[in-house]
Specification:
- There is one protein chain.
- Helix 8 (about 305-315) crosses helix 9 (about 315-330).
- The relative contact order is 0.20.
- Strand 5 (about 65-70) and strand 6 (about 75-85) form a beta hairpin.
- The radius of gyration is 21 Å and the shape is globular.
- The strands form four sheets. It has a six-stranded antiparallel β-sheet with strand order 5-6-7-10-9-8. The chain has a five-stranded mixed β-sheet with strand order 14-3-12-13-15. It has a four-stranded mixed β-sheet with strand order 2-1-17-16, with helices on one face.
- Helix content is about 20%, strand content about 30%.
- The protein is α+β, with helices and mostly antiparallel strands.
Length: about 350
C-alpha cells in the first residue's frame, strides 16, 4: 500500500491544544461493525459488556524536555535536549538542538542540581551521561524538565504546569515514557469506578512510549518503513487475566495503540498470552491478522501515520476513511489532547 492511501485533510482548528475537563467529558465516536454512535467517554460503561477487559498502559511520562547551557570560557550556548530513552550502561539517548554546539566531552548544565556530559553522537542522537543517578536523578529531572508535548502542540504553545497532570494517566507508575499513551488520558476515578461497577475488568501492562511515535513515514511504499523499537513488559498476572477473560467469552480491548502493539507482540499465534519482556518494533498495517485484540479505544491520529495504518488494519481502510470524514464534519477534536474513538470490528 502507498503512503498516500492514509492521507486526509484536517482543519487546523480541530487540533486540540488542551484536554477536555473533566477528562471523561471528551467525546467518543463508537464504531461497532457497521454501526456508528456519537457519545462521550463517560458513556463507556454502557457501551462495553460485563466480562470485557480493558488493557491499560501504566507507563509514566518523564519531564524529558530540558533547556541547558554549554560553556567554553566566556562563551555560552543554549542547548535544548529531549531525552529519548535510557541505555543499559546508564547513559541516555537524546536529541540535542543545536547538536553542532556541543562536542563530545563537553558538559551541559540544566540547573544547579543537574548536568550531563555528551559522551558521543550516533545517527544524529547524542549519548548523555548525567551527574546523578537513581532517585537523585529522578528528583532533579522532575525539577528541571518539562513535559515533552507532541510537536503539533509544542509549536502552538509551550508546556506549562497544567501539563504535568494533563499529560499523565491517573494510573501511571512505571517511569520511562517520553510521550503519553493518550487514549488513557480520558479516564478519571469516577469513570474507573463506573466501569468496575458495570463488570468491566482491567489489566495493566507497560510500554514506554518513545519519541519515535511522532516520526513521519518517509517512504512511499509503507512496506519499506521500519518502526522504532520500544521497551515493554507483560507480567504473568496480566497474561493470566487476559487468558481467563478470553476463556470466559469476554473481549480484550486495549486502551491505546501502545497497549495494542504490546499485547500483539506478546500473544502467540493461537491468541494465548504469555509473560513477555523486551523491545518491540511491530508494525501493524492492513492485512495483519490480530491475535488477541477484539477492539481498541484510541484517539484520532495524524494523516499518513503508522497509527492510522494500525486502526485501518483493525477496521478496514475504507471504514476508517468514512469514520474520519464523519469526525471532521462533526468537529471532533484530534490528536493527543483530542477526543476518542472505540473501534470494534
Amino acid at each position: 500500500m502507498k503512503l498516500s492511501d492514509f492521507d486526509f485533510d484536517l482543519p487546523e482548528d480541530l487540533i486540540a491544544v488542551r484536554p477536555a475537563r473533566p477528562r471523561s467529558s471528551a467525546r467518543l465516536l463508537v464504531a461497532e461493525g457497521a454501526a456508528r454512535r456519537d457519545l462521550h467517554v463517560r458513556d463507556l460503561p454502557g457501551v462495553l459488556r460485563p466480562g470485557d477487559r480493558l488493557v491499560l498502559n501504566d507507563t509514566r511520562v518523564i519531564p524529558a524536555r530540558l533547556s541547558g547551557a554549554r560553556r567554553r570560557g566566556d562563551a555560552v550556548a543554549r542547548v535544548e535536549v529531549t531525552l529519548l530513552e535510557p541505555r543499559a550502561d546508564g547513559s541516555w539517548a537524546a536529541l540535542l538542538k543545536p547538536l553542532r554546539k556541543v562536542q563530545p566531552g563537553e558538559a551541559i548544565v540544566f540547573s544547579d542540581d543537574l548536568s550531563a556530559v555528551l559522551e558521543g553522537v550516533e545517527d544524529g542522537q547524542g549519548r548523555l551521561r548525567f551527574d546523578r543517578v537513581g532517585e537523585d536523578f529522578d528528583a532533579a529531572l522532575e525539577a528541571a524538565g518539562q513535559m515533552p508535548l507532541p510537536p503539533y502542540i509544542a509549536a502552538r504553545r509551550p508546556a506549562d504546569a497544567a501539563d504535568r497532570d494533563d499529560y499523565q494517566t491517573i494510573w501511571a507508575r512505571e517511569a520511562g515514557a517520553v510521550a503519553a499513551p493518550t487514549a488513557s488520558l480520558h479516564f478519571d476515578d469516577a469513570l474507573l469506578a463506573a466501569l468496575d461497577g458495570a463488570g468491566i475488568a482491567f489489566s495493566h501492562v507497560t510500554l514506554h512510549v518513545g519519541a519515535g511515535t511522532f516520526l513521519p513515514v518517509k517512504v512511499d511504499d509503507i512496506s519499506d518503513h521500519r518502526m522504532h523499537a520500544e521497551w515493554g513488559r507483560v507480567t504473568a498476572r496480566a497474561a493470566d487475566e487476559m487468558n481467563a477473560t478470553r476463556a470466559a467469552g469476554g473481549r480484550i480491548i486495549p486502551v491505546g495503540t501502545t497497549a495494542l502493539r504490546l499485547i500483539e507482540s506478546a500473544a502467540g499465534p493461537d491468541g494465548r498470552m504469555v509473560p513477555w519482556e523486551g523491545r518491540t518494533d511491530i508494525f501493524i498495517t492492513p492485512g495483519y491478522r490480530f491475535r488477541i485484540t477484539d477492539g481498541l479505544m484510541t484517539n484520532f491520529h495524524l494523516p499518513k501515520s503508522t497509527l492510522l495504518m494500525l486502526v485501518s488494519a483493525l477496521m478496514g481502510l475504507d471504514r476508517m476513511k468514512a469514520l474520519y470524514a464523519h469526525a471532521i464534519a462533526d468537529r471532533y477534536r484530534f490528536f493527543s489532547y483530542g477526543d476518542a474513538s472505540l473501534l470494534i470490528p
